[in-house]
Design goal:
41% of the residues lie in helices and 18% in strands. The longest helix has 21 residues, at 206-226. The chain has helices at residues 29-41, 78-92, 104-120, 126-136, 178-186, 193-200, 206-226, 237-242; strands at 4-9, 13-18, 21-26, 49-53, 56-60, 65-66, 146-148, 157-160, 163-167, 174-176.
């Protein structure tokens, strides 16, 4: 019998792997529904949905290896990063999914609330929070919505050589800002931003991408701490905030 491996587990969701099958258990049925529907709509390689029942989504493993991990150097060649950029561009050019995404007012309110919590609880130095809060506000500008993945972490993009073989974890997919996806992919891996942008093949405002790095990191710290992860690990969110300029 194949071993059951816990890929990730916290109070909101858990992912188990049994052989080449992943079981995603989520307390929020809406996230499972979005994930399955987004994968069906996305014009890029996604996992095959094997079955879906209340609270559980079963998907097949995708071939290849993850582009990398946050906090670790990526062994993927520049061509693989460029291929990821091209795949993201293809996604962004697809018709919008038929559900709403997060708006500017909601993001601005979340940013204010998280910054206040970080300082009130002494989680991060006040000057670090203040500097990144100022940088982050550049991301809060009007954008033309695209079909955005919404959680395009480096570990969610799988490649084989210079080919993207699969993009996973679509529960946050929605109409959103194209630069947020590019920023999420390159968070902590600024050295590969040029390769991604070259593959994406469009003019990109690098200052807005840097603003999203700060914004995403500020929003993530509390959630990571409360769910048993360490945002201060080398190369992760706190280091991203410290390197912001």
């Amino acid at each position: 019998m194949d071993e059951v491996k816990v890929v990730v587990a916290h109070s909101e969701r858990a992912t188990l792997r049994v052989g080449d099958v992943f079981l995603k258990v989520d307390a929020d049925q809406a996230r499972i529904d979005v994930e399955a529907e987004a994968m069906a709509l996305a014009p890029v390689p996604t996992p095959k949905v094997l079955w879906r029942k209340p609270s559980v989504l079963a998907i097949a493993a995708v071939p290849g290896k993850a582009l990398g991990r946050l906090g670790e150097p990526s062994a993927a060649p520049p061509a693989a990063w460029a291929a990821a950029g091209a795949a993201i561009r293809k996604l962004h050019e697809a018709p919008l999914p038929p559900w709403a995404g997060r708006g500017l007012d909601e993001l601005a309110a979340d940013l204010d609330a998280e910054c206040e919590w970080l300082m009130a609880n002494g989680v991060l130095p006040a000057d670090l929070v203040t500097r990144n809060r100022r940088i982050a506000r550049a991301a809060l500008r009007p954008w033309t919505p695209v079909f955005a993945h919404g959680d395009l972490q480096i570990s969610h993009v799988f490649v084989d050589g210079d080919e993207v073989t699969g993009i996973i974890d679509w529960s946050e997919a929605a109409p959103g800002d194209a630069l947020f996806d590019l920023a999420t992919l390159t968070l902590g891996h600024e050295e590969h931003l040029g390769d991604v942008v070259a593959g994406y093949g469009a003019d990109v405002d690098l200052d807005v991408i840097r603003a999203w790095w700060s914004l995403r990191s500020l929003l993530a710290v509390r959630w990571l701490v409360e769910h048993g992860f360490d945002p201060s690990a080398p190369g992760c969110e706190v280091d991203v905030l410290r390197s912001a300029y």
